[in-house]
Amino acid sequence: MIVRRLEDARKSERRVTAENWESVRLLLAEDNMGFSFHITTIYAGTETEIWYRNHLESVFCISGDGEVETCEDGKIHPINPGTVYILDKHDKHILRGGKEDMVLACVFNPPLHGREVHDENGVYPLPEDAQAQQPEAVAGSG
Predict the structure, then answer these.
(1) Is-contact 73 115, C-beta < 8 A?
(2) DSSP label at residue 73
(3) Contact at 8 Å (CB) between 103 and 41?
(4) Which residues contact 27 (CB under 8 A, 6 or more apart)?
(5) CA atoms of 73 and 87, how far apart (whole Å)
(6) What number of other Cβ atoms are within 10 A of residue 126's Cβ?
(7) Where are the domains of the chain?
(8) Domain 18-139 has CATH 3.20.20.70
(9) In this predicted model, what pLDDT tens digit does every residue of 40-89 receive, in sequence order?
(10) In 3-state terms, what secondary structure has residue 9?
């Protein structure tokens, strides 16, 4: 059994920060669960373009507000507590913080290793050990 406390993880290397967000990675690839689990805070009034071309993600809003826009069709979906959105097609999207910080619970498959941040295209890199497990269409895309 693995037991971790969010407050303890916030004080460790499991807390990763960027200009528009911070992510506390409670479960990572090294935990051998096949997915990672994070508590991410999107700062109010920010906008972040993201494209998880190497990962699938499910996101549940715990608190705060914001919106997510899918780049392919321009649809905007409001996010508030109780909203879940699932990026099941490696959707390129824009995540916007609202009037207050938005706290999200996020699950990634394949799991993150811990210190990843978005590259210039909004992508988390795919670790070499996961590349061998990915279908050709995903590993070789864009």
Answers:
(1) no
(2) T
(3) yes
(4) 2, 4, 33, 35, 36, 37, 38, 111
(5) 14
(6) 18
(7) 18-139
(8) no
(9) 999 999 999 988 888 899 999 999 999 999 999 999 999 999 999 999 99
(10) helix
